[in-house]
Amino acid sequence: MKILVGVKRVVDFNVRIQVKPDGSGVATDGVKMSMNPFDEIAVEEALRIKEAGNAEEVIVATIGPKACQEQLRTALAMGADRAIHVLTDEEIQPLTGARILKALVDKESPKIVMLGKQAIDDDNNQTAQMLGALAHWPQATFASEVKIDGDTATVTREVDAGLETLSVDLPAVISADLRLNEPRYVKLPDIMKAKRKPLEAIPLADLGVEIAPAVNVLKTTAPAKREAGIKVETVAELVSALKEKGLI
Amino acid sequence: MSKVLVIAEHDGSNLNGSTARAVSCASDLGLDAVDVVVLAADGSAVAEQAAKITGVSTVLLVQNAANENAVAAFLAPQIEALAADYSHVLAPSTTFGKDLMPRVAADLGRPQISDIMRVESAMVFDRPVYAGNAVVTVEAPEGLVIGTVRTASYKAASNDGSASVETRSVDAAMPSHTRFVGLESGGGGDRPDLQAAAKVVSGGRGVGSEENFKAIYSLADKLGAGVGASRAAVDAGFIPNDHQVGQTGKIIAPDLYMAFGISGAIQHLAGIKDAGTIVAINKDADAPIFEIADFGLVADLFEVIEELEKAL
Q: Is B199-311 in CATH node 3.90.1860.10?
């Protein structure tokens, strides 16, 4: 069985985002880029499923410009077997992204597609669910535990009410939440080895995917800022301030 | 005529408060009608509650044994069948709506607007990106609009409506590939729901242990507050996941948010930006949480809790 994992190149989670003064977006020039942290967790989970003897091959895929190869190499260094790079310089929104992943699913016939639950740049939280719909597959989103047993997966999901468990038939789409695992550190020899692993580049046009109707971003602004208030010295001072506001 | 359909979130007997917030957003669209659909196994009680939300014209009640639990793969085809009568379909951006709506959107070939925080017009919306560190104004393409509503950005619509309830039967094929196994609730007990609570007392890594979290619960109970936590506290196993506040946890907007031993990572701050008053108690005077707190107190959190309990 194959597992396909989608990874996205995003602004590193430690970077303090700066909105461009002309409202055209956020500054990304010279900013550190990384693999979306949720996708790293997805890669790790796929590797663990393989290491437990429940899968033979882990394929990582990304969509985007040439530079995204860096994130594929990271995933290969973690232990993925091979990579697919769908090359495009266009901005790809979730529905088109899901259609592209569907084309890769048709090509590779994986039993599981593992994705991060959301990308930390656009925070959309859509692609896994959309792929589930397009493939007519079950979806198990926001996973904090995945157990594979033959042709079914039992997935614990982090939901607002607590922990929900679903049992789904494979093939299925699973999206990773934060507590699913802790991704391994990549060691130097693995980085060297990753350079020799197969990486197939496919121009987007070659996949014959129909671009979905797009949401048009009109402008990007900085959010309303919360100003720092005051420091109080004692609990008594705090209590009287809160009483004055009618909060306690 | 253009109408909006709001998908009700409920647990089979009670309507979730996020629904009335999504209705507030739906009303801002300025369309001809706001309808709510209750998909349930036996949903008349929930439908009655939805009918009381101010601004709702009609509550559609779709009853099907498959709707016993909110499983996206079952709910999506039913919503898709109903969507033909609407220009907009919205759901709260809770884990319920986040799981469900993209499946509906993709099946209908439509993009989704996630986390709507402001309606500029029926087609133009503001939504947060980068954990709320930027806001984008987006225009939906012509045709059906599918979206989720950032509930912390909206006050719940009031409760003096009297919508009619219509029972609908929907023809939709239910897949057999998904089975609901169970739900284990985090054990918040009788405390107010985090997303609806007017006051929230929250603990972070600084609380130190599961045992020490008792102090947080105790203060919360004194204040009638909900209990929140930072990701660090949940990761450390001090408290179950459903208490997590932040970019990937719950986004909340209580009148009072009290953060104990929370340093204030941007991902956590993303979840509390809309709180009325933020109080931060931390030993570290340089903790980033003080940059956004209305009242900061540099002190040992356990001593502060003890003193607070005496003062209340």
A: no
Task: Note the pLDDT tens digit of each residue in A69-104.
Answer: 999 999 999 999 999 999 999 999 999 999 999 999
Residues of chain B contacting A19 with CB distance shorter than 8 Å: 133-134
Contact A160 B95 (CB under 8 A): yes
Evaluate if residue B193 carries a pLDDT over 90.
no
Q: Are B62 and B78 in contact (CB under 8 A)?
A: yes
Domain boundaries, chain A: 2-222
| Residue A217 contacts B where some CB pair is shorter than 8 Å | yes
Min distance B24 CA to chain A CA atoms (Å): 21
Given an 8 Å threshold on Cβ–Cβ distance, is A220 in contact with B296? no
ipTM surpasses cut 0.90: yes
CB contacts < 8 Å between A and B, how many? Answer: 261
**What average pLDDT does the structure give for chain A?**
97
Q: What is the pTM of this model?
A: 0.96
- Give the homologous superfamily in CATH for domain A2-222: HUPs (3.40.50.620)
Q: In chain B, at which residue ranges do the beta strands (DSSP E only) sit?
A: 3-7, 33-40, 58-63, 88-92, 112-116, 118-119, 124-129, 134-139, 145-149, 164-168, 178-185, 199-203, 226-229, 256-260, 277-282, 295-298
Q: Which of A134, A160, A217 sits opposite B106 (nearest CB)?
A: A134
Give the tens place of pLDDT for each residue, B1-42.
799 999 999 999 999 999 999 999 999 999 999 999 999 999
